[in-house]
Amino acid sequence: MAAAAVRRFGGSVHPERNDDSRMPSAKLVIGGAAATTAIGIRVARSLYTRWRLLPEGDRRRIESLAEDLKTQAFALRGAPDRARAEADLFAANETLAAALVETAEADPELGDAEVHEIREDLRRELERLADADIKAWRTRREAAPPPG
Length: 148
Description:
globular, 74% helix, mainly alpha, single chain
């Protein structure tokens, strides 16, 4: 019967109970501030993974920055002041990215081209986060009704 219903109605939900037309797009629901948060956490994961791959001496030297980043990413979940938590995560992302660049610059085994590539990769990661924040801000701003 279930397979027959799918064939007959073209989906797994009976037409009378289908609320597709009343549901907002998932892109709209997940967009805005939630998108900024998700990208911020993805950037944090990427930076944390880069830190974990460093040689032990370098890893130990900037461990407190990596752990602060991890703490800020976890603190974002259920934070009462989400805007402040996002700002703290953004700052922690920038700080660890800068430390990773400094570590690469100090590594005598890395050439100028490799250091430049690392710097550009990290710059793109942070730009992606900044771009998401701008888009989220515009989305919230444009979605608000005009005053008056």
